[in-house]
Specification:
single chain, alpha/beta, Rossmann fold, 2 domains, two-stranded antiparallel ribbon, 6 helices, 9 strands, about 35% helix, binds 5-O-phosphono-beta-D-ribofuranosylamine
Amino acid sequence: MKRIAVLASGEGSNLEAILKAVEGGEISGQVLLVISDREEARALERARRRGIEALFLDPRSYGKREAYDRALLEPLQRARIELIVLAGFMRLLSPVLIEAFPHRIMNVHPALLPSFPGTSGVEDAMAYGVRVTGCTVHFVDEGLDTGPVILQEAVPALQDDTAGTLRQRIQAAEHRLYPRAIELFCRGQLRVEGRRCIIETG
Ligand code: GRF
């Protein structure tokens, strides 16, 4: 059973989908720790409700990003975490964390990368007028949404979509895709070769 931590800043609907997949046996791992940079994050409440350790680490108590990431490292190492899952964690990670967990940090992004990276992927895709967008689960490197792609799912952008309706359908796809990507990791089926993530099926 892989030891998983989830980092989240907000609602935590992806966390919820992951916890349900763990409970349903679709993920052969356990979520041992949830950390947030926002005290009011619903993600913390969702974890506590299930008796999972939930920590709020206040960025205002630390100067630079590196100092904050060093503070994150402590509970992650103490819990002997093997995979860090970012689920709506609204901070760019520094090398402190990325080097301590090489190809062991995942993120989900609400667009088909490399299109529309950044914090407004859904709105940017709509404003561009694409017919198809979607979501991407990728390993995290030091760039903004630039690491090797693990899985992607396409979602049509409809003419009468608002950012809200499109986001809803993309999130529904995220909730299917993220548990699958996590399970591939838990089974040791993911190998990174340069920019490419290979899924071993043997
Ligand atoms: C997700 O839609 C994800 O694409 C983005 O942040 C959102 C988090 O939503 N990175 P939630 O907190 O999991 O509900």
